[in-house]
């Protein structure tokens, strides 16, 4: 029972990261690599604040807000300096590694004995409540005029420009929201596991993408259903990891396993199209 609740809790906390990545990769159609750095940034800032006796809730929110600045930097590099989206994200991500080391003053910080959001052993309930609040807020926001404009920018940026919309502002706002989510996820994950580490964000993009694709295979439909699918995909992914580890996979091979799974899942749509095309040609 404890393993079940722990796995669900981890899935919920990582789903916040997945939701952030979903905003950039799926809604905005922006290959943002900043998430790996902002996840660690959130964990680093939160850990330092907790060690200094600052309230856990305030520390978590502050981590998210400061994480949004990482998205702002990436947006500036892309929209003002005209650097390609993926390169802008990589530059910010690399810079954040040094910044995170500076913030923590060392490679990791232990939170044992510190007061955290999860101090009362209600990690699953707290994680579920946080995910529900964020889910509702995101659904409401992306139904507003500016939220719909962000979605339209991701669908057809050239059309939005032709209509006179400032797509740079839309991209900047979406990147800030995305990295707010990623940093908050990092803050919550650090509190849950009891420490913050400089390598917390390593491979997080792949984990998030795997969660998104798994979720899309389960649910589809209205916008809120797509958001719910991301959360379900993240939880299911954690159970897959637990299952694979129970079968004897070396923990050090998890990154490789995640990359392979993500590659297979991401290639499925094109594989299906290829098979259908071959079948059609064979019939003709």
Structural description of this entry:
This protein is an all-alpha fold. The protein has one domain (2-202). It is built from 11 helices and 2 strands. The chain has helices spanning 2-27, 34-51, 56-79, 85-104, 123-141, 145-155, 157-162, 167-193, 204-218, 223-246, 254-283, and strands spanning 108-110, 195-197. Strands 1-2 form a two-stranded antiparallel sheet. Helix 3 (56-79) runs antiparallel to helix 4 (85-104). The longest helix has 30 residues, at 254-283. The protein starts with a helix and ends with a helix.
Write a brief caption for the model.
The protein has 11 helices and 2 strands. The protein has 284 residues and is mostly helical.
Topology, please?
Elements lengths: L1 H26 L6 H18 L4 H24 L5 H20 L3 E3 L12 H19 L3 H11 L1 H6 L4 H27 L1 E3 L6 H15 L4 H24 L7 H30 L1
Antiparallel strand pairs: 1-2
Helix pairs in contact: 1-5, 1-8, 1-9, 1-10, 2-3, 2-4, 2-8, 3-4, 3-8, 5-10, 6-8, 9-10, 9-11
| Number of domain units | 1
Task: Kindly provide the radius of gyration, computed on alpha-carbon positions and rounded to a whole number of angstroms.
Answer: 19 Å
Whole-number average pLDDT?
90
Helix content class: over 70%
Total of DSSP H or I helical runs spanning 4+ residues: 11
Which band does the percent of strand residues land in? Answer: under 5%
Ends: how far apart? 56 Å
In spatial order, strands of the major sheet run 1-2
User: Structural class of the secondary structure composition?
Assistant: mainly alpha
What is the succession of H and E elements?
Answer: HHHHEHHHHEHHH
Number of strands: 2
Q: Shape from CA axes?
A: globular
User: Would you identify the regions where 5 or more consecutive residues have pLDDT less than 50?
Assistant: none
Largest sheet: 2 strands, antiparallel
